C-alpha cells in the first residue's frame, strides 16, 4: 500500500505529532519515512558573528541549516527507535516546496502533514503548508489532526 512516506517537520509540537503518526503508520505497513525540513538562507555577516561566539574547534558546526539538521536528527532517532527505516532531507526554501520536491524525488506513496492553525475561524482555511501540499502533491496526502 505505502512503501514511502514523506513527512515535514520544523521541530514544533504539532510537527512532532505528524512525525509520530507517520512513524506509526510506516511501522504498521513496512514503509520508509522520508523526513523533510526547510530552512531560509542566513546572511554571511550573521554567520560570522555566530561563529565568533563558539570555540574555534566547533565553528564548523555553525551554518544556516544547523537548527534544521538538529531537528531532523532528533525526529530520525525516534523513527529508528521504532524500527522504521528513515532518511532525512534538509532543503533551503519554502517548506511546502521542500516536501513536494522530496515526495517527487523519492516517488512517495503518501505525504503526511498536520493541520496546524485549524482552530476557531481559521478552521475553514487550511494552513499554507498543508494547503499547498494538498493541491500540488504527486501522491496521496493525509492531513492529521495535530491541534
Task: Explain what the structure shows.
It contains five helices and five strands. The protein is an alpha/beta fold. Strands 3-2-1-4-5 form a five-stranded parallel β-sheet, sandwiched between helices. The longest helix is centred in the N-terminal third of the chain and has 17 residues, at 13-29. The chain is globular and about 50 Å long. Residues 58-63 and 117-126 have low confidence and may be disordered.
What descriptors fit this protein?
147 residues, alpha/beta, 5 helices, 42% helix, 5 strands, five-stranded parallel sheet
Q: Return residue spans where pLDDT drops below 50 for at least 5 consecutive residues.
A: 58-63, 117-126
Sheet with the most strands, sense and barrel status: 5 strands, parallel
Spatial order of strands in the largest sheet: 3-2-1-4-5
What is the percent of helical residues?
A: 40-55%
What structural class should be given to the helix and strand makeup? alpha/beta
What share of residues are in beta strands? 15-25%
Shape: globular
Beginning-to-end CA distance, first to last residue: 27 Å
Secondary structure tally: strands: 5
Helix and strand succession?
A: EHEHHEHEHE
Radius of gyration (CA) equals: 16 Å
Number of helices in the DSSP assignment: 5
Whole-number mean pLDDT:
82
Please provide a brief summary of the model:
The protein has 147 residues and is of the alpha/beta class. The protein has helices spanning 13-29, 44-52, 66-81, 95-105, 128-136; strands spanning 4-8, 32-39, 86-92, 110-114, 140-144. The protein is built from five helices and five strands, in the order βαβααβαβαβ.
Amino acid at each position: 500500500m505505502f512503501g514511502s512516506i514523506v513527512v515535514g517537520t520544523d521541530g514544533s509540537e504539532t510537527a512532532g505529532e505528524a512525525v509520530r503518526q507517520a512513524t506509526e503508520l510506516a511501522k504498521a505497513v513496512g514503509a520508509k519515512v522520508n523526513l523533510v525540513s526547510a530552512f531560509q538562507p542566513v546572511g554571511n555577516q550573521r554567520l560570522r558573528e555566530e561563529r565568533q561566539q563558539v570555540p574555534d574547534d566547533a565553528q564548523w558546526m555553525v551554518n544556516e541549516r544547523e537548527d534544521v539538521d538538529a531537528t531532523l536528527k532528533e525526529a530520525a532517532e525516534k523513527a529508528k527507535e521504532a524500527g522504521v527505516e528513515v532518511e532525512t532531507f534538509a532543503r533551503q526554501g519554502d517548506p511546502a516546496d521542500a516536501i513536494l520536491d522530496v515526495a517527487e524525488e523519492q516517488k512517495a506513496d503518501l505525504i503526511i502533514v498536520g493541520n496546524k492553525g485549524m482552530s476557531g475561524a481559521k478552521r475553514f482555511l487550511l494552513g499554507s503548508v498543508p494547503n499547498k501540499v494538498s493541491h500540488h502533491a504527486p501522491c496521496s496526502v493525509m492531513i492529521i489532526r495535530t491541534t
